[in-house]
Amino acid sequence: MTESESHSRWEGCLLGLAVGDALRAPLEFHRRERITPITGMIEGGKFRMCRVE
Fold first, then answer.
1. Can you give the pTM of this predicted structure?
2. What is the DSSP string of 2-51?
3. Phi, psi torsion values for 12, nearest 5 degrees
4. Under a CB-based contact definition with an 8 Å cutoff, are residues 46 and 29 in contact?
5. d(Cα 53, Cα 47) in Å, to the nearest integer?
6. Tell me, what DSSP letter sits at residue 52?
7. How far is Cα 26 from Cα 9, in angstroms, rounded to an integer?
8. N- to C-terminal Cα distance for the chain?
9. Residue pair 30/38 in contact by the 8 Å Cβ criterion
10. Structure confidence at residue 47 (pLDDT)
11. Tell me: the pLDDT tens digits for 23-39?
């Protein structure tokens, strides 16, 4: 693996981590039964986050 490929993989890993964390925040600590499918941006959650945060 070249240095460029390794760098690209690290960038993808960190981007995936950040996106996953941001998408998970409004649903954190909820039981699976309470979660309905999300089709857009939502507010709230345990941390009462706004759409732009």
1. 0.47
2. -HHHHHHHHHHHHHHHHHHHHHHGGGTT--GGG-----S---BTTTTB-T
3. -65, -40
4. yes
5. 11
6. T
7. 28
8. 37
9. no
10. 67
11. 777 777 888 888 777 77
